[in-house]
Structures are given as structure tokens and as C-alpha cells.
Amino acid sequence: QVYVVESGGGxxxxxxxxxxxxxxxxxxxxxxxxxxxxxxxxxxxxxxAAINWSGSVIEYADSVKGRFTIIRDNAKLYLQMNSLKPEDxxxxxxxxxxxxxxxxxxxxxxxxxxxxxxxxxx
Length: 122
Description:
Number of helices: 0
Structural class: mainly beta
Distance between the termini: 41 Å
Number of strands: 11
Order of helices and strands: EEEEEEEEEEE
């Protein structure tokens, strides 16, 4: 079976930092792409960042460029979030795809974590 588990969410003041962690395991996930998505209340899940297996290809949503950093260590994935804003408040999801190509579309990812809540106060 494939397991995707993320953690690290919490409550932080505007301007603060959080680091999210994710572990994905399974026999079909070698050299695959992974990513982070987030979901605001009443809205569809949206793309945050993605990375290929080696870290040579990385994509970020315009809303987080310069503030968030995605880090890959084989089956482990991290999202370092700095200069957080109240509008970053959302449930954050770790996702893994079988293929190696980095994509920003939610439907390209087959496996998902349970989500972790990030709340930024003003």
C-alpha cells in the first residue's frame, strides 16, 4: 500500500514561520514527483509547490514565491513557510504522483495525505 502522512501545522502570528513535513512510502513511488496543495474554506484545493525526485525541477505558485521553500529528501518532503500572512490560513496537503514529471494540476497526483491546519493570526 501507499502511505502519505503530513504534519507540522499550527497557529502562528503574521510574519512568523512554520515547517511542514511529509513522508510517502510505497513500491511505485521511486523517482516520482511530489507537491504541496492548500484548501481555503469553501474553495477548491489549489497548488502551492512541487518538486521532482532529484530537486532539479521546482515550481511555486505566484502567491508563495520568495516566502515558501519546498525541500525533497527521497521519500521525505518539507515545506518551509516564512513571512506568513493571514491569507495563508488553510488546510495544507502533501501529495505524491506515480510519474516523474512535475505538474501543478491536482488531478495528476494519485496519493494524498490527510491535511494539516495552518492558521496565521494578525
